[in-house]
Amino acid sequence: MGLLRSLVSLAVAASAAQAAAPRIAGFTVTWTDDFNGGRNSPPNSANWITDTGKNYPGGPANWGTGEVQTYTSSVNNLRLNGASALEIVALKDSSGAWTSGRIETQRKDFMARAGGVMRIQASLKLPSVSQPVGYWPAFWALGAAYRGNYTNWPGVGEFDIMENVNGLNKAWGVLHCDTNPGGACNEANGLGGSRTCPGSACQGNFHTYTLEVDRSAKPEAVRWFLDGTLFWQVIDTDMPAAVWNKTVHNPIFILLDLAIGGSFPNGVYGSSTPLSTTTSGGVFTVDYVAVYNK
To answer: Any idea where the GH16 domain is (predicted)?
Structure first.
């Protein structure tokens, strides 16, 4: 794994909601959603596909991760808050069954072109609840070739821009690729790093999470930033060229979801999640999502 040689600062404000995606010097905004709209409206269907149920048609059960919730299109689980933000809400009913929300971009053509750089960025406030074991909010991207197939993971590539589990004050960035188990990305774990949220907890506060795909120089690199500080990267010499090219040189689409239970929270907690005491009603708030290129 290539060593992080320096901490790179991005010119991004992170501590509070700001509605509109910020400009980044040298980059052009390729696509953005500021989640403007009336309170209790669904996300803009021109921008987003709302996933429902427990799997894609023909895809692995429980979304391939063992998570327990059912995704719905109900505004109880997925809604605009009327103040330029999206809310994804995890709810447990009287029988103990969980529901939540998951969306993915209609567009599936985001990528860094040869010689260019792409950044995918969001301002996110993670759920703050009294008993968070089993909560798994995520901001991530999948290779476009996954759509309509749903059996070709991890070869299509997955970029976990922000994952958080069990209410820990920590964000993970992970790259998945190649074959499962094992392969160039050590599946099913992937190649990942993490850091705590600076200044204020990840839960209940807005922080900015950024993925950068840099094809402007050699070695090419994929980098993860939290509030503008680099905390993890993978470079092209960390894996065979064919694997890197398939993972990094192809278009992707973006997802946001709030899962409950599954392999990641279970693994970190050391046993099955959620617990009977896990709090219902946690809210994952998204201020904006933006894609930049240069």
So the answer is: 14-294
- Alpha helices by DSSP H, 131-251: 241-248
Please count the CA atoms within 13 angstroms of the CA of 264 that sit on its side-chain side. Answer: 27
- Identity of the amino acid at 250: N
Dist. CA 47–CA 107, nearest whole Å: 7
Tell if the pTM clears 0.85, that is, is over it: yes
**How far apart are alpha carbons 118 and 79 in whole angstroms?**
28
Rounded Cα distance, 75 and 43, in Å: 10
pLDDT digits (tens, 9 = 90+) for 62-115: 999 999 999 999 999 999 999 999 999 999 999 999 999 999 999 999 999 999
Q: Are strands 70-71 and 98-100 parallel, antiparallel or unpaired?
A: parallel
Q: Assign 8 a pLDDT band (cuts: 50, 70, 90).
A: very low
pLDDT at 271 over 50: yes
The token duo for 259 is 């899962």
Q: Is the peptide bond before 137 cis (omega within 30 degrees of 0)?
A: no
How many helical (H) and strand (E) elements, i.e. helices and strands, does the chain have?
2, 18
Alpha carbon distances (Å) from 262 to 29, 90, 166, 183, 287: 34, 14, 11, 22, 26
Instruction: With beta carbons less than 8 A apart as the criterion, state whether 256 and 209 touch.
Output: no
In angstroms, the CA 258 to CA 100 distance is: 6
Determine the straight-line distance between the first and last CA of the chain, rounded to whole angstroms: 26
**Strands, sheet with 91-92, edge to edge from the N-terminal-most edge strand:** 70-71, 98-100, 91-92
Name the pLDDT band for 20 (thresholds 50, 70, 90). Answer: confident
